[in-house]
Design brief:
4 helices, 7 strands, alpha+beta
Amino acid sequence: MSWSKPTVRLAAELQTVEDVWRMVNVLPNAPYEAEGVRFDLEGWGHEYRADTLRTTSGELEPLLPIVVDADVPVDGVEQSFVRALGTGPATIDWQGVWLDAPELGLLANSKYEGVRVVFHTDDVDWERPAGDHTVFVHITKSGNLPRAR
């Protein structure tokens, strides 16, 4: 697979204060969105940069869970990201292009191809908790089992 983007998407739901601080060390420039805060039309105070997050556990806990979602350079911090995960759902999403497979009548399609790993869930939308991780191999919009094999 060749990368169609020079970046990888990293996203995680951080459920504890410790999860947040571990992830801030890995993704210090990422946006952190406080899911525990109701949307406020006047305040808009639910998205933070690492340097503007509350500094004490007591101030941070009411904001939990906090979701981080960032595009970073490929082969940069993916391993550190995995080590920093807590028990909340998370995603690593590489977009790329599989090689042409003319024997199967298939040409590369960068719009829908890639590899996604989800942690602590077994679906890409984080709706079904799981105790492990799942790898999704994306091959065209409607899928192609011969190519996946």
